[in-house]
Amino acid sequence: MKIIVGITGASGSIYGLKLIEVLKNAGHQVHVVISDSGLGVIQYECDTTLEDIAVVADKIYNVHNVGAAIASGSFQADAMVIAPCSMNTCGCLANGITDNLLTRAADVMLKEGRKLIVVPRETPMHAGHLENLLKLCRMGAVIIPASPGFYHRPDTIMDLVNMLVGKICDNLGVKNNLFARWQGTM
Q1: Is the pTM here over 0.70, yes or no?
Q2: Where would I find the Flavoprotein domain in this sequence (predicted)?
Q3: CATH (one of 3.40.50.1950, 3.40.630.30, 1.10.3470.10, 3.40.50.720) for 2-172
Q4: What strands, in cross-sheet order, belong to the sheet with 2-7?
Q5: Which parts are annotated binding residues for dimethylallyl phosphate?
Q6: End-to-end C-alpha distance for the chain, whole angstroms
Q7: Annotated domain spans of the chain
Q8: For every one of its 186 residues, what pLDDT tens digit does the chain have, with 9 covering 90 and above?
Q9: At 10, is the secondary structure helix, strand, or coil?
Q10: Do residues 144 and 85 lie in contact, with contact meaning Cβ atoms separated by under 8 Å?
């Protein structure tokens, strides 16, 4: 599959970085676009640079280049995941505002009827946040909140990250064994 991964300035950039790694290891083509604030969060939270990401991704696009390939429906990406997705980006998408390449690429996914997964990372949320997420859901986006479960008995932060990334991959149809799946009660 050809998958676009967007990373915004919400806390939780590790989700997007791990997703890029997992998708590449599974043999998928990964195109990445990172907002300016997203890059700052990646550097702060993960000590990772754009150069580090470029080693893994097939292509990284400048968020200000709205003429890039992923801005067009003719690019034919199979899916796009925004992980994490800031409430600013959710608000823009819910209201048809495409002020950069990340929001334009996501808007293209919606208008073309292709899979768009949004991973909001905000707490608490007010009514405006929830209304924007509902609008996105009604427009065809899949909402996977960055709130991993604990039934797999995580020991580390990466166990929690892997669980959420595994759920994203499940939704994309990407086979994975990133977390222990629920087997039922005794």
Answers
A1: yes
A2: 1-171
A3: 3.40.50.1950
A4: 59-61, 29-34, 2-7, 79-85, 115-120, 142-143
A5: 151, 167
A6: 38
A7: 2-172
A8: 999 999 999 999 999 999 999 999 999 999 999 999 999 999 999 999 999 999 999 999 999 999 999 999 999 999 999 999 999 999 999 999 999 999 999 999 999 999 999 999 999 999 999 999 999 999 999 999 999 889 999 999 999 999 999 999 999 999 999 999 988 886
A9: coil
A10: no
Please state the residue numbers annotated as binding site. Answer: 9-11, 35, 86-89, 121, 151, 167
Name the percent of the chain in helix, strand, coil, to the closest 5.
Answer: 45, 15, 40
What one-character-per-residue DSSP string does 167-186 give? Answer: HHHHHHT----SSPPP----
* Phi, psi (degrees; rounded to nearest 5) at 83: -140, 110
Residue linked to tokens 């995941």? 81
